[in-house]
């Protein structure tokens, strides 16, 4: 089991004077990260569609005693608005001349009924399932926007030829345990969270080589936040392995600042972090079969394991 060990000394010192841009910080895990990074001396720029929640958190932090000299600024950002996300990054870069870390935590869950056997019939199937497509847009399209912008800003000023233990700058994308296991009925949510792991898998071979950064995804089980308020009593009654916001923040920060962490999908359960990608990769010959596993490896090598396939093997221009 590839369990994540917490280095308290690292988490105490690494955030100092670092520039962090975060999308989805008005509540839940995002707000926890904003608060903790600020308290450890980081310069945090965060946005959320909940503009009131953003401003309230910003004012609370700025009015608190803070000997670490961290700073915090909030922005009204709908993640589906590319220009709004871009403006947040641009402002942070203008203030400091760099962006060191970027974290995407925005997310919403499915509304009931759109894929329910009890509700779906030949009459209401005529409706476009906008509630579900909105989930995909917030959770995945916004994440793609964030990732593209973050890569441009994070790589600015980075020497990709430098040798060392690993790049310090990193990109964190919040997926879910439902991004790699089945979640009955959560169709849009599950699809979008699987997609976030797909982003990490497609960029991890290129992140260090081409951008000089690391990229990882975080996959919590149910965490005691407003998103699961309607289900929290049931989950507690069955002794579900819930997370706390503070526990998730610890694991995320460890993954952010650990220069060896790249391409992981870190399950957080009962406030413990476990990288799922390492075991999945190492055990592939067992669960897929040796022949199929070797053929996939051969194809990867032929096409170029560390090559940008969209750049090398397609005719589509941007």
UniProtKB/TrEMBL annotation:
GO terms for molecular function: oxidoreductase activity, acting on the CH-OH group of donors, NAD or NADP as acceptor. Keywords: NADP, Oxidoreductase. It holds the Pfam family adh_short. One of its GO terms (cellular component) is cytoplasm. InterPro entries: NAD(P)-bd_dom_sf, Sc_DH/Rdtase_CS, SDR_fam. SUPFAM superfamilies: NAD(P)-binding Rossmann-fold domains. Belongs to the short-chain dehydrogenases/reductases (SDR) family. PANTHER family: 15-HYDROXYPROSTAGLANDIN DEHYDROGENASE [NAD(+)] (PTHR44229:SF4). This is Uncharacterized protein. It comes from Talaromyces amestolkiae. The lineage of its organism: Eukaryota, Fungi, Dikarya, Ascomycota, Pezizomycotina.
